[in-house]
Amino acid sequence: MAAASNSDVTRAVHTKNSDDGNNTHNDNDHNNNNNNHNDNNHDNDKHSDNVVAAAGQDSVARLRGGVVKIFCRSVAANFLSPWQKKAQGGSTGSGLCINRAARHVLTNAHVVKNAVAVRVRRYGDSVRYTARVLCVSPQCDLALLEVADEAFWRGVTAIQLSEGMPALDSDVLALGYPMGGDNLSVTRGVVSRLDLMDYTFSPVGGERQPVIQIDAAINPGNSGGPVLDPSGCAIGVAFAGLSSGENIGFVIPGSVALFFLRGYAKCGSFRGLCSLGLRVQQTQSMALRDFQGLAAGHSDSGGNAPASRDGGVLVVDVAPLSSAAAAGLQVGDVLLSVDGVPISEDGTVTYQGRGFGERIGFDYLVSAKVEGEVLALEVLRKVQAQGTEDEIQDRAAETTKLEVRAAPLEKLVPRTAGVDAVPSYFIVGGLVFLRLTLPWLEARFGRGAQDAPADLQQKLREHKASHDEEVVVLAKVLAADVNYGYEDFSCLELLELGVHEEHASGSPLHVVHRIRSLRQLRCLVQEVLLSLPDSVRPGSPGPLLRFQLSCGYQVVLDASACKAAQSEILEQHAIRQDCSDDLLDLGRGSATA
After folding, report:
1. Which PROSITE patterns did the record assign (predicted)?
2. CA distance 538 to 56
């Protein structure tokens, strides 16, 4: 969103090694009256403030039992050394009880990220009850917990989620357990903005959803707590604050939370946010609009000259495996509307939630769809005019309607740890090959992976051409005699695997395979190694493995030497096996070129 960069927005989970600071705010700072008002206005404002304050106090007294403190112990994956885990850590956050019958508690996904043990504590209670994580969606930054113990639910009033969006400048109360103390905290504020945000704060962008900005601080530990309106209904779930701004917090709207819960109720999980898989360009330039047939005076395919069309964005890229591509959307089309909602030339639409007039990006119309639902697209497409190559002719434009079935988009480079990005690896001859993922890039090169090699950064912007396509990289080399001379090779894409050996007839045999996945690589290498006798003397004639890497580099290893050295290399580095568990079943992968 325009108000802040991703680096400024911080999660509001409290890790146990965080420094507790003095985050107490004077409520009077939020309730100062304007001295320029006359006495009557001053009295009216004061009366209004008193009414709101009284309503807020009643809501807090009635619902505070439904606001819980969450204690999480977590063990994260280690993308740099994927055969091991990181050290156990601890954190706290907040949550809200939403369904007594189902015994459900709602919180943020990042509060229970990589959880191995979760416990919750009610307001005014000393007991920490065991909770089970039922469903997690990093894209929605929401997680659903189940607390099975009946004792936990005695006397609890469930908090209702609001489907609609709040009005600007409406009063809110943020409840939770932030750093600086152990008891419930209540912060007053107002709704200051409605916008769109990628909840994962991905440096390469992701699917966006509506977000509510409030002028109440969301501090570490507040994550997952409810933000209430004066009636006691939750307008949403607190999840982030702005580190560079004072008293700026961000809230996941109740409509997004209900969307997440409906997805879980439908299939027992949340499949991810839907995307058209497009990149678009604004059409504010009159010259561009004229060229694309959006200006007045252009003829349609029937020879008519309609008035100028308002709005529309130019499609500049379509992912090959996207639902939009399957429906026939093309580069060069102008997208005019989604589900009958007109798109302006800057790519925004009027937000339909409450009709306050705010404009947000049109992509929310897609991300708000459940997988399988149909989207109606209106597209302006140029029709190629007949003529010779030397003739310069205008191309007529016609309006086309397309139906697109909403679906999440598979990424060439997986983005989210524990969802599409898992720490897979394969080791041969001390060469450590990984599947390229954003978590690995950020672990290796820092937030945003801005120092990563340019060719690997470019992969983040490319699309999958087939469902089994992956980017395989040589991450590092575990030094051994078998790989002498290659010890410093790292962070290079693997393009091809060549197997070179002498045929029984004495003629050389060369087979080259284009690498399209980590599983395929292991299958190919294992096929060669398993064909060798169990007792092989290094240096004896045998096949050579040639790994063709990016930037023209190549690694050539003796297959017999690789087989002989494998167990010693793994033992030296305390590695249990030569590959991750997801690659053990060779029968599920193809070793064909």
Report:
1. PDZ
2. 78
Active site residue 573: no
Residue 14 among the catalytic residues = no
Taking CA atoms, 257 is separated from 206, 217, 237, 339, 347, in Å, by 18, 21, 8, 22, 25
Q: Are residues 219 and 362 in the same domain?
A: no
DSSP character string of 495-515: EEEEEEEE-TTS-EEEEEEE-
Cross-strand partners of 151: none
List 162, 202, 223, 580, catalytic entry: 223
223 included as an active-site residue: yes
CATH, residue 175: 2.40.10.10
Alpha-carbon separation of residue 236 from 102, 228, 355 (angstroms): 20, 7, 18
Total number of domains constituting the chain: 4
Give burial (CB, 10 Å; 0-12/13-18/19+) of 53. Answer: middle
Give the whole-angstrom CA distance, residue 79 versus residue 84.
9
3-state secondary structure (DSSP) of residue 264: helix
Residue 301 inside a domain? The answer is no
Long-range Cβ pairs for the range 291-295 (8 Å, 24+): 292/334, 292/380, 292/382, 292/397, 293/334, 293/380, 293/382, 293/395, 293/396, 293/397, 294/334, 294/380, 294/397
Task: Report yes or no: 184 and 208 within 8 Å, Cβ to Cβ.
Answer: no
Tokens of 58: 């009643």
Cα 396 from Cα 379, distance rounded (Å): 14
Q: Which pLDDT score, from 0 to 100, does residue 565 have?
A: 95
Taking the C-alpha atoms of residue 357 and residue 374, their distance in angstroms, rounded to an integer, is: 26
Residues 432 and 543 reside in one and the same domain: yes
Residue-range definition of the domain harbouring residue 339: 275-294+310-384+395-408
By DSSP bridging, strand 554-558 and strand 234-242 are unpaired
Residues 372 and 432 in one domain: no
Tell me the pLDDT tens digit for each residue of 249-264: 999 999 999 999 999 9
C-alpha–C-alpha distance, residues 323 and 325, integer Å:
5
Q: Rounded to an integer, what distance in angstroms lies between the CA atom of residue 375 and that of residue 351? A: 17
Identify whether the C-beta of residue 185 lies closer than 8 Å to the C-beta of residue 132: no
Nearest alpha-carbon partner for 365 in 336, 333, 341: 341
Across the strands, what pairs with 513? 497
Using a pLDDT cut of 70, give the percent of the chain over it: 81
* Per annotation, catalytic residue among 104, 110, 367, 580: 110
- Residue 153 host element (H or E): helix 150-153
Of 140, 418, 106, 406, give the one whose Cα is nearest residue 260: 140
Shared domain check, 578 and 464: yes
The secondary structure of residue 160, as a DSSP letter, is: P
Q: Are residues 520 and 437 in the same domain?
A: yes
Tell me the pLDDT tens digit for each residue of 188-238: 999 999 999 999 888 888 889 999 999 988 888 999 999 999 999 999 999
The token pair at 575 is: 């590695």
Query: In a 10 Å sphere around its CB, with 0-12 CB exposed, 13-18 middle and 19+ buried, how is residue 52 labelled?
Result: middle
* pTM of the entire predicted model: 0.83
Report the distance separating Cα 484 and Cα 486, nearest Å: 6
Could you say which of 74, 141, 185, 580 is catalytic?
A: 141
